[in-house]
Specification:
The chain contains 15 helices and 12 strands. It is α/β, with parallel strands linked by helices and about 325 residues long. It has a 4-stranded parallel β-sheet with strand order 2-1-3-4, sandwiched between helices. β7, α8 (about 155-165) and β8 (about 170-175) form a beta-alpha-beta unit. Mean pLDDT is about 90; it is low at about 205-210. The structure holds iron/sulfur cluster (SF4). Iron/sulfur cluster binds near residues 120 and 179.
């Protein structure tokens, strides 16, 4: 049964590779994608990395194996390329916590405020923002805003609280959260802390998945020795550079595949087996094949929204 599945996957991957050449396409995959997708992608990275890879490629078509807002970001940054997502229903519970009407109403209450939104938002929300940010660069972005300015920060409340604590700035914070990171509790970290006394703890500050942990760390509810707050790329680098042989990884479990692959001989434990993003797992090899065969599903952000959203993203990229 396993052999048969492997054979079928190999055949699908062969067809994907052939079609990719014919279409002059590139496949970008987020770190939280299923292993089969990561293994056949041209590039695997975090949401910022995917955006950067999209702007660098000469391919005409980008197959974005991630969630919808990531395909929108690629469309915003690469308006002349065809961006396709294998499953258009791959959403994001965090991005869904705020809509454009809600943001506009919030802005009306604070007409002089600077709006900073996490990259995990829709294109419309980015278009209403002054700056985008990721968890990795959020502190830099907030620090770059003059201290007398009022700031609206959306949509992740844990990241907002962490940024506020670290910068000493009072922020207006939208009460949004991601269903994945909301499930990771400090108790989960503490349980593994005692069970793996020699392990390093890699806590991911991106994508909202462990922003609650960042918040608890800032409050000293979890100890800071042996703990590193890192982007997924930072995790990969730290795992390679560290003398430690064992790591506990606090993020969506998809990253474990890449960590194992790039660090043979080291052991990685997910902080929670339940930290699984059902949206990220909606992309399958069969759907990627379908997307290249039929050139579906195209994600095209309308020009006026894209040009306003691009300003917020580019400001972030310049500061980061
Ligand atoms: S893990 Fe959370 S923030 Fe990341 S894509 Fe999934 S729902 Fe969105």
């Amino acid at each position: 049964m396993v052999l048969q599945q492997l054979h079928e996957n190999t055949s699908i991957v062969d067809r994907i590779i052939k079609l990719k050449k014919e279409r002059n396409a590139i496949i970008l995959a987020h770190n939280y994608q299923i292993p089969e997708i990561q293994d056949m992608a041209d590039f695997v990275g975090d949401s910022l990395g995917l955006s950067q890879a999209a702007t660098k490629t000469n391919a005409n078509v980008i197959v974005l194996c991630g969630v919808y807002f990531m395909a929108e970001t690629a469309s915003i940054l690469c308006p002349n390329k065809k961006i396709i997502i294998p499953d258009p229903d791959a959403g994001c519970s965090l991005a869904a916590t705020i809509n454009c009407d809600e943001l506009r109403a919030w802005k009306r209450k604070h007409p002089n405020a600077v709006v900073v939104t996490y990259v995990n938002t829709t294109a419309e929300i980015k278009a209403e923002s002054d700056y985008c940010c990721t968890s990795t660069n959020a502190l830099k972005i907030i620090d770059a805003i003059p201290s007398e300015k009022e700031i609206l920060f959306a949509p992740d409340m844990f990241l907002g609280a962490y940024v506020s604590a670290m910068t000493g700035r009072k922020l207006h914070i939208w009460p949004g959260e991601c269903h994945v990171h909301a499930g990771i509790k400090p108790e989960d970290i503490m349980k593994l802390w005692n069970r793996h006394p020699h392990a390093e703890f890699l806590i991911h500050p991106e994508c909202g998945c462990v922003t609650s942990c960042m918040y608890y760390l800032a409050k000293n509810d979890i100890p800071s020795q042996r703990s590193y707050i890192l982007s997924t790329e930072g995790m990969i680098k730290r795992a390679k550079a560290s003398p430690a042989k064992e790591f506990v990884v606090a993020t969506e479990t998809g990253i474990i595949h890449r960590l194992h692959k790039e660090n043979p001989g080291k052991v990685f434990h997910p902080v929670s087996e339940n930290a699984v993003c059902k949206y990220m797992k909606m992309i399958t090899l069969e759907k990627v094949l379908n997307s290249l065969e039929n050139m579906v599903y195209e994600v095209k952000v309308p020009g006026d929204i894209a040009s306003r959203a691009r300003v917020a993203i580019q400001r972030m990229m310049q500061l980061a």
